[in-house]
Amino acid sequence: MALGGRLATTLLLGALLAGCGRSTEAPRVAAAPVPEPPSTPAIEPLATFDSAWTIIGRTHWDTAYNGVDWAALRDSLRPKAAAATTQRALRGVLLQLVGSLGQSHFDIIPQELADVATGDDRRLELPRTAQVGLTTRWSPEGVLVTQVLPGSAADRAGIRAGWLLDIINDDTLAVQLARLPQETDPRRVMLSAYRLSEGGLRGAPGSTLTLELRDGANRKQTRTLDREPIVGQEVKYGNLPTQLASLSWERRQVGDKRVGIIRFDIWMPVLAREFDVAMDSLRDSDGLVIDIRGNFGGVAGMAMGIGGHLVDSAVPVGRMITRTQTLKFTMNPRRVSTSNERVEPYGGPVAIVVDALSVSTSEIFAGGLQDLSRVRVFGEQTAGQALPAVAGRLPNGDILYHAIANFVGPSGRSMEGDGVIPDERVAPERSALLQGRDPAVDRAVSWAAAAPRPGAGTKLRVTP
Amino acid sequence: MMQITRAIASTFAVAVLSLPSLAGAQALPSVTEILDRHVTAIGGREAALAVSSIQQRGTLEMAAMGISAEVTMAAAKPNRSSMVMSIPGLGEIQQGFNGDIAWSNDPMSGPRLAEGEELAARKAASNFEEAFGIYDMEKFTSITVVEKTMFGGEDAYKLEFVRKVGPKVLTYYSVSTGLYIGSQTSIVSPMGTIDVNAVASNYKAFGNLKLPTRIEQSQAGQDVVITMSDVTFNEVKDDAFAVPAAVQALIKP
Asked: What is the CATH T-level fold of the domain B2-248, as seen in this structure?
């Protein structure tokens, strides 16, 4: 056996798979569409279509293709691909192909978006790298500002959490939302509204936008702001587009208890070290809150390493089921600090805060630990889009993003569909936001401060 | 089918008894003949046994994710090995075995020691000379010539290696060249037992030995291609197998 073959004993490819929300239904990580010249000629349309159809046909974990007649679909779409004269038209056919499965993690990523590397000046031309510092969520009252980044353009302009965002550059969000196909699942509405508002808010650095909002007294407020680069580390992972990653942590005092709070917005390995550092700093906390609202996922294997900070034994956070194999996502109990000292994994109470924009790896992580009874989950039901996926290149240069496995939690429940249902549902309330509170995190912090520390002999609820 | 039922001396100074059998109408060569032929094809037993350590550098491509990594692998007698793989956007994945301790360390999962069945399988499969097709038969329950078949697009002899510890391995040797051209086995890992298929090709000469420079490997439905570009012999330092400080913290005194 050749030495090269020894890699077989070492490389765990399952850990390298992507698990981020890039479905045709979910908002793109990039949020705003990339400029796509409509006249760019189609490149190898038939070879591209055949490649996409064949790859999914070979790798989809369900040989019944979620009820889709895969051969008939090829017969119906292939002539359309052959007739496509532009890249845009070809992408339309490809999106029909992947969208027909009705599952998350099937998408076509345009080459011009996928190939922009970190540090590449072209990334600054993409209309997604700057914003004004607002986080929004849909609510029955409208698009609600849930967070204003301190020091941002929005903050400096006096915009506050709890305001309602009505119009972005003459586009009325409510009108745009009403034009979309009617959704009965509020999570889908949440995703669509986010896509609309984020798509409008983002743009090139230095570009200007005008917002029309309603303040806490429902008075109309108009602001004209310059977009500023979004804070975060740029990361390029494989064929996925360059993305921004950020993590922050703080400690909050609740009576005589100290609760640590860690927030991060994507599961990318560049944040793993920062998470380790945060854990070292918060290890003596009486409770811990992990806020992954608006975290669209990332590298699925990270759930094993981050989860390992919270468990004392090597138990799976779930299983990835491909057509031929089942891989256990076994968490690695983290017994070494960032200064290479022996420590014990965090044993205190842990709350995870999620919402409808917690997608994929976020769901794998939260749902798996919830199944194990290791955490208590607060917030809103997650997206239900949690399928391990890969991102390979097609002959026309675009990236075929496609799921290759189902993912089930330790209890055997699939994360796709229902997602994670919080133990305590806490929605963003406008009145609370206007008072400077964050209901979901506040509730999680209160619980973490009051919850008893699990005993040393407490066993995780592991289902064989 | 030929089965080795007990160990006797072989050309590899190990114990082999080959009981010839028939596959169809055509007699198959013995285990010893197939393994001898491979060793001869890569440069001979004397040249192989003169190597006490090896370092290989190259790249690993996982097209399905667009991942391209730099890989450095080292191995030394009797059973030490290490690997460092650098993946853009992820960082450095390190793994090693120093004869007693098998470990891994990467940004996603952190430091880890292999234990139990995983460690036992790793120990059993770590034998330096196996990189050149030289086997210590004492470590196997049986080695069998299964059949003549097609593998990697050519006629091949299929051998089944059953270790005393760890998963069995099917290996394939080219009928025309005698060279090892691939294997099918499973690995014991934290993610479970995973089937792994490998196809070896593009043999090139490095010093007195020929080694495959392209390994196509598939596991769990995903394919990787490892391309080796640089090989050095007998120059690996001990620190290539040193256990990183983060892993040392896991080792109980």
From this structure: outer membrane lipoprotein receptor (LolB), chain A (2.50.20)
